[in-house]
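Per your request, structure below.
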């Protein structure tokens, strides 16, 4: 079959580019909302088959498309390694008593009325300092889920507050990978990019904190009712584990390594090793039990339902659902990229984005769309960034507006999509379905709305400075005029 096909790039028509995406989204909606089955794996596998069939019909060799699939999957391998290591750290930190200790202290210090506000703020600070939303969710976020359940806060609300804080910090941190990727692909510098994001992410976070504080008032009156439950949980934790301040060493070390920009994988694995050592020394378990916790997670059998539900988590095996989903979603994205379907769709969107608002809406929407169809946050930043940068220059707009808009639609929307790497990780780690917490992860979707508001009004949408224009000229950056022609000449004036 391959002998009759070509491996040379060939653009599909717009209809042929949209068709496999539309069919796959239809299958996903059918699975999620008609069959009421929260397993998007098979629809995405069928999506790969649909793209392959249409690509072959267009004249692509299977080997050519397969290479694109494997290329994008290989880009996601570091994320999958982190997923496995996070599964290990959860199991070992519960076995060692680290997570139970954090829950114990949290239940003693936090009250239901301030819990959601404090959760969002704590996760934001830690993620801002470390530059990793995943590390924040998998460590502090997991403990806060347990504390929230002990205080009687619904899991979806706690998860929403964790995600809002963790991904806000990730987006704004100069240590974050996506925060460095966005300005690089758009042609601006890191600090200008971060300053530009304050106009959307800052108000979104303030509104989110206000909403969590307001929601918390509805649980403030439950404090007395929850006191008996909290006392029972803490008593059970004290009976089951030897609680010691030494158990705080692993999270402190992991956060310190992240702040010092130590690579994520060895940082988390250091936490696994320290947790394993403390499990043997402090809890008196065997090395074999530590290995079992790494592989299969911790199983709590205290007889107290809420405690057993809180602590029966972790292990590499618990992440297999997430890892297989990430593999399939990235493969689907790789096929779409190799057959140039994404390129055609993005170019078509770019042609109709004539105004300032249209351009910002198109770049934000393209980042969201890439997140949806590829399942990968890095592609959602890189592809629209590369595609839209010449158009922003041509309209005379600062490319910090572009880098901000693709992070609003890329980094912050990633955890709200069930089959995206971000959404799958959060759901697998916290044990809460993505569609349950997404509506209350306020900071994630409010940032995008503020970006569109500023684009409509013209506020906080700066034109390119003379210095920025000169840099484009010096670097020979591509500039696209309103007819779609690329040039390295002087940018046009921004349109309203």
């Amino acid at each position: 079959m391959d002998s009759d096909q070509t491996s040379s790039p060939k653009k599909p028509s717009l209809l042929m580019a949209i068709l496999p995406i539309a069919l796959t989204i239809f299958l996903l909606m059918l699975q999620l909302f008609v069959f009421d089955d929260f397993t998007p794996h098979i629809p995405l596998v069928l999506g790969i088959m649909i793209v392959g069939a249409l690509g072959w019909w267009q004249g692509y060799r299977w080997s050519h498309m397969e290479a694109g699939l494997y290329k994008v999957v290989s880009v996601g391998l570091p994320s999958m390694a982190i997923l496995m290591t996070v599964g290990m750290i959860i199991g070992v930190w519960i076995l060692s008593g680290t997570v139970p200790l954090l829950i114990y202290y949290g239940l003693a210090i936090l009250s239901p009325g301030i819990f959601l506000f404090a959760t969002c703020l704590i996760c934001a600070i830690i993620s801002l300092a470390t530059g990793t939303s995943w590390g924040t969710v998998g460590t502090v976020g997991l403990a806060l889920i347990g504390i929230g359940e002990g205080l009687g806060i619904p899991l979806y609300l706690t998860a929403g507050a964790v995600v809002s804080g963790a991904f806000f910090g990730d987006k704004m941190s100069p240590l974050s990978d996506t925060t460095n990727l966005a300005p690089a692909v758009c042609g601006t510098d890191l600090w200008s990019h971060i300053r530009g994001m304050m106009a959307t992410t800052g108000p979104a976070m303030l509104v989110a904190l206000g909403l969590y504080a307001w929601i918390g008032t509805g649980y403030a009156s439950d404090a007395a009712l929850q006191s008996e439950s909290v006392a029972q949980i803490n008593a059970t934790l004290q009976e089951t584990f030897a609680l010691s301040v030494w158990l705080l060493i692993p999270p402190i070390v992991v956060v310190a390594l992240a702040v010092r920009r130590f690579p994520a994988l060895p940082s988390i694995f250091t936490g696994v090793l320290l947790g394993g050592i403390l499990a043997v020394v402090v809890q008196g378990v065997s090395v074999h039990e530590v290995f079992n916790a790494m592989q299969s997670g911790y199983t709590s059998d205290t007889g107290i339902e809420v405690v057993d539900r809180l602590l029966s988590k972790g292990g590499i095996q618990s992440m297999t659902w997430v890892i297989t989903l990430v593999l399939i979603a990235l493969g689907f994205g790789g096929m779409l990229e190799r057959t140039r379907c994404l390129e055609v769709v993005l170019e078509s969107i770019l042609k109709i984005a004539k105004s300032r608002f249209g351009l910002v809406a198109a770049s934000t929407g393209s980042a969201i769309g890439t997140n949806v169809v590829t399942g990968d946050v890095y592609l959602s930043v890189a592809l629209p960034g590369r595609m839209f940068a010449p158009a922003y220059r041509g309209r005379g707009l600062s490319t910090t507006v572009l880098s901000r808009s693709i992070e609003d639609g890329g980094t912050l929307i990633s955890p709200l999509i069930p089959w995206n790497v971000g959404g799958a990780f959060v759901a697998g780690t916290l044990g809460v379905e993505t569609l349950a917490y997404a509506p209350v992860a306020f900071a994630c979707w409010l940032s995008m709305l503020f970006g569109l508001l500023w684009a409509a009004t013209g506020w906080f949408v700066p034109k390119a400075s003379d210095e920025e224009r000169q840099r484009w000229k010096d670097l020979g950056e591509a500039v696209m005029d309103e007819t779609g022609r690329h040039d390295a000449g002087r940018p046009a004036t921004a349109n309203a």
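The first strand starts at residue 479 and ends at 480.

Regards,
D.
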